[in-house]
Structure formats: C-alpha cells, structure tokens
Amino acid sequence: MADPYNSSSPRSMAVLLNDAMVTTAPELAGYRVVRSLGLVRGITVRSRSIVGNFLGGLQTIFGGNITIYTELCEQARDETYRDMVTHARQLGANAIIAVRYDATELMTGLTEVLCYGTAVVVESHQG
Question: How far apart are the first and last CA of the chain?
Fold first, then answer.
C-alpha cells in the first residue's frame, strides 16, 4: 500500500518546518500565513499487549501513575505528531497551526490516536 504522506519530495523554502513552527494556536507569532494548504494528519491504532495489561494491572493495585500506559500514550502521540509533520512537509508547508489530538477507543484494548492541524506557508513579519 502506498504511503499517502510520502508521495512527493519536500520543497525547499526560507522558513523550515520544525517543532517551533507547529502550534495549537490559530496563528504563529511573528509570522503571517500566506497560503493555507489544508488539513494534515497522522494516525495510529495501538493495542495493549497481554504483558502490558498484566504490568498495568499490577500498577493499579498500588495507585498513582500507570507508567506502562503513560509510555504507550506518549509513543502513540509522538508517532502521530511526526506523521502529521511529514504529511505537511510533503504538501510544501513550513508551519502547522491549530494542532489537536484526538483518541477513540475502537474496541476494548484498541485505541486510535489522531493528530491533526492546518498546513500553511508562512512568512516572517520582518520580511
């Protein structure tokens, strides 16, 4: 199956898309949007393993942060974030605004994690 996020080569531009150019805000301070390229996203579906469920169950006995699940959530969010950034680069974006995360339990033990935002081309206010 073809990878929809990596179907073309990235374009070069003066302002490069990096983590500082990604925001949950509707605009990026110090920059103006010159073109909107549309929705970009990263998605993953994760399941808990039998071992993970066992260790998580043990941790629930003692209370507090269930680190095995915290790590799973962080890995899923990081993966979807990176896929979203890759998708934006393929469209020629140098920034992503209005970023959000969403998670849906598809069935017991199976969760979809989605990271999405609006890919844009921005220019510095300084010129």
Answer: 42
